[in-house]
Amino acid sequence: MTSAAPSFELLSGAGKSPVILHVPHSAREIPDDVRAGIVLDDEALERELDHIVDAHTAEIAEAATELSGVTPWRFVNRLSRLAVDPERFPDEREEMLAVGMGAVYTRTTHREPLRPVDTDPEPLLARYFRPYAAAMTEAVAERLAAAGRVVIIDVHSYPTRALPYELHGHGPRPPVCLGTDSFHTPPELLAAARNAFAGRGKVGLDSPFGGAYVPLEFYGRDPRVSALMVEIRRDTYMSEPGGPAGPGLDRLAEALAALVDAVTD
Question: Which residues pair with 21 in a beta bridge?
Fold first, then answer.
């Protein structure tokens, strides 16, 4: 765990593509300055990473990119969400603050201490959260200028059994869950996703996780920016927790590529 890796990466797609595959939670990398503030020992931290990381989602997005007729853009977080979670609201609007998992986590997936409860989040927000948000905002603005519209597809995964931190873990846990936003998820995008993933088992909606990521500059304001979260249940493509991927990964990549092609056309 070092600070050598870049904190995020924008991977270029076709000039005419409106699609950005956003992969925010796939990495295990923790910079040294972040590790210094975490109270878990190395073994406990590795166990926490097994639970919290959306393992292999970067590989799913990469494989889907290679299969797509028009290459989408990819925005990939190269640091663990234990540094900062780029998809959280950085203020009191964030409901996950209730379990110590706002933009800077103070609790683990099992609600145990991760950082001191009085940790000042500002240094991590300044170093990691705001540069990430600014780069994602710029990427969306560039796609708007080039293609006239943007489709953000968030690529996530979730465990077969609910973890204690989940605020809405009592609901259905289908093989594929589509997270939506009332403003940014139009019916045609949702229909395309349902159709693309229909062969991967039951496709659910907003359970156990809902919502879709849009940079705050566009959130609730610009209907040219549409968004959908694709949550994949981990037992469909990997060994839990934190184990290797299996053949399900290729099939999910094919489904994701079909969604990219549908919304690109």
Answer: 74, 153
